[in-house]
Amino acid sequence: MAQPPQRPAGGRAGMKKELPEHFKAYKNVWVFVELERGRVHPVSWELMGEGRKLADKLGVELCAVVIGPKAPETKAAIAETWAYGADTCYICEDVALTDYRNAPYTKALTDLVNTHKPEILLLGATTLGRDLAGSVATTLKTGLTADSTELDVDDEKSLAATRPTFGGTLLCTIHTLNFRPQMATVRPRVMAMPDPDPTRKGGRMVWHSLDMAEADIVTKVLEYVADATTSDANLAYADVVVAGGMGLQNAANFRLVKDLAAAIGGEYGCSRPVVQKGWMPADRQIGQTGKTIRPRLYIAAGISGAIQHRVGVEGADLIVAINTDPDAKIFEFAHLGVVADALQVLPALTEAFKRRLGGDVKVLEDA
Amino acid sequence: MASYLHPVDPPAVDGLNIVVCIKQVPDSAQIRVHPVTNTIMRQGVPTIINPYDLFALEEAMRLRDQYGGRVTVLCMGPPMAEDSLRRALGLGCDKAVLITDRRFAGSDTLATSFALATALTTLAREQPIDIVFTGKQTIDGDTAQVGPGIAARLELNQLTYVSAIDSLDQDKGEIVARRRAEGGVQVLKSKLPCLITMLEGSNVLRRGSIQDMLRAARADVTIWSAEDAGVEDPMKCGLRGSPTVVKKVFAPSPREEPAEMVATEGKTAHQAADAILDLIFASQPKLEADLVKGA
Questions:
Q1: Which of A92, B12, B18, B78 has the fewest CB atoms within 10 Å, counting from its CB?
Q2: What pLDDT is stored for residue B1 in this prediction?
Q3: Residue B116: which residues within 8 A CB-CB, separation 6 or more?
Q4: Cα distance from A218 to chain B (closest Cα, Å)?
Q5: What is the rounded distance in angstroms from the CA atom of residue A63 to the CA atom of residue A66?
Q6: Alpha helices, DSSP H, located in chain A
């Protein structure tokens, strides 16, 4: 396992400004394209949009990394990277990479990094992305910031990754000063989906061989069982979301949230403490450790608006907050505020929407 | 094949030797941050075992109950983290090890995985370890990076987000587990030694027996310094061993345009609702058309 020699600075490592000599050759912004079961996870394209901004600020290339089997789906994913702004695409194709497994994927990505030396490497904070990022960062002995909500580069060309900290009491900005690549994961829907440009010319393709025999890969995939329901995806991609918090006082009152969501043809969710109370299932949680949403309309009822909730909903076009407490944090980032008891306002809103929209409303397709 | 956790090959078989890594975390959001170092000041905040780790503890004890062997809990933290280890003993774990040293302070996930992996290697010299369990993430860090970090350092087969263990064959050293993936579940067959991070809700935590509680109160918790744990290079621990640097800790500022407050004074709930709808559709005219179209 090749690793750079570590020469920590005196006192506090990382406070030293000078990047060690052997890292100075690291250049370009890489985005890991998550290809699973023939499908690219949309978070990869969201990251390409963000990666493009970082690459432009740094004056370097944006590169995509596609890892998967030698198959038409992989070829299609490579072709799509150009439309989302890639200048170069690094490719590792091997039959052993057909299904995601930690060992061969970790080897493919760490070998690519060690060979081609990117300064920044971004991955989606999905189950696959987090499984892989932790292994890769540890193998490379570099820094990794999880679930970043904002990415930027400072005057010294260092990646500034911001994320909520400590259950959402504060935000912190994290740098990896003396090690490369600087790695970060970002949850799906945190960054806006860029518009692809299908006319954009294809860039450079660089192939890399896995050099790993199936016999040497201990873990085997016996089976994949697809989920029966896809409520997960629906909530993250819904046009309208209604969510309830502790202000609703008990589990039974969440009926009001579901009724309003149904009347508008949207999805429903809740804040973290509601899940901890057992009032709603975990897959309905909105926020830093739940789903990030980007609806056109978000109605938050009885939610105080901790930072961890805020970062999960800030991508909404219009945030309507209903809370009895005029000093609730949520009014600091809502567009429309209503100081009132959600238990009375929710049923009234349900009726008003039904009147305006005319009876039963189907769930919207994505525009 | 010998490895870090199976230094002797073949390993001495006497049931399963399982280690669960747990963390003591603050039980609330009342966190204070040191103004100079930007690290957490943990004094005076009530603490609990990281809730996600309880699923790892339970799964480990179930395997031990079924196949024999023992469950050791391992924790890196301040001296007071001994409380959480005693709680784990009270639930029915067999042995507890706390690695505590000022030099661990301020560890990021890379430095944390270094300290824990080093301690695991030292523990494996006493008896080879078959499975290392962790929770999927902690509620204070929320990174989910330490489990994979330990696995990478010890070259363990890594199974993250596991919702169920379908089977385990001690003679062959094989394990079959279900892993949460995007949009489905992967059924994976792997080999021991391995590292498993458990998904929340995958089991129900037992209540410790009276005997266990009494035993826990009297039990010895092994307390190791960095040296005891086997750390040879303290530069890989704590702040010095952490490649990530927290440059800034701050509270988010309110949006530049304050929220438009809907007047509710003297209105019935229905009148207020109509006013809210008018404002929603005034700012999102296309939304109304799309919603009506969808109807």
A1: B12
A2: 45
A3: B21, B74, B76, B99, B146, B150
A4: 6
A5: 10
A6: 42-58, 72-83, 102-116, 127-140, 231-237, 254-264, 272-277, 307-313, 342-357
Helix axes B109-126, B146-154, angle to 10 degrees: 50
**pTM across the whole model:** 0.90
d(C-alpha A261, C-alpha A347), whole Å: 11
Say whether B201 and A282 touch across the interface (CB within 8 A): yes
The residue type of A27 is K
Residue A141 to residue B188, Cβ atoms within 8 A: no
Q: What is the pLDDT of residues A72-117, one digit of tens each?
A: 999 999 999 999 999 999 999 999 999 999 999 999 999 999 999 9
Determine whether the interchain pair A224/B273 forms a contact, defined as Cβ–Cβ distance below 8 Å.
no
How close, in Å, is residue B260 to chain A by CA atoms? 5
- Predicted confidence (pLDDT) per residue in B15-69, tens digit: 999 999 999 998 765 556 666 666 666 666 789 999 999 999 999 999 999 999 9
CA-nearest residue to B234 within chain A is A8
Shortest distance, CA A331 to any CA of chain B (angstroms): 6
In whole numbers, what is the pLDDT of chain A averaged over residues? Answer: 91
